[in-house]
Sequence to fold (142 residues):
Amino acid sequence: MKIAIGNDHAGVALKNLISTYLKKTGHDVQNFGTDSEVSCDYPDIAHPVAMVVQNSEADLGILICGTANGVAMTANKHKGIRAAIAWNSEIAGIVHAHNNANILCIPARFVTGDEGVNIVEKYLSTSFEGGRHENRIKKIPC
Ligand code: RB5
Fold:
C-alpha cells in the first residue's frame, strides 16, 4: 500500500517505529511529518496528509500527535476523509471494519511503541465490512 504518514513533535519516535515496521512489511511510506522534537503546529502536517489521501495519491494516511485529537480534527475537515483515533488495537480493527477510516490517528503520548505498531498492524489486517456500515458512512457528509 501507499501510506502517507505525518506527525508533530510529540510523535517523532512513534512515527519512526511505525515507518520501520511498514517498510519492513513491504509498504511504500511517504513521510510528511517532522523529524525534529522542536514544537510545531499539527495542522501543517495533517492537511498535506489528508490532501494526498483525498486525491488518491495515497491509499491510507497515518497521523500521530500527542492525543491524536488535533490531527483528527484537522484531517476530518477534508471532504472524503474519515480520520479515526485508535488508542488500542481492538479500536483500530473496528475503525476499519465499521467506519472504513482512511486516516488512522494515533495518540503518541498515550500508547507505547509496541502498542502503536500493533494498532497499525490490526488496522491493516482488518477489512471494511460494508453492508449497514456502508449506509452509515454515506450519511456522514453534510
Ligand atoms: C502538542 O503539545 C499537542 O498539543 C499535540 O501533539 C496534540 O496533542 C494536539 O491535539
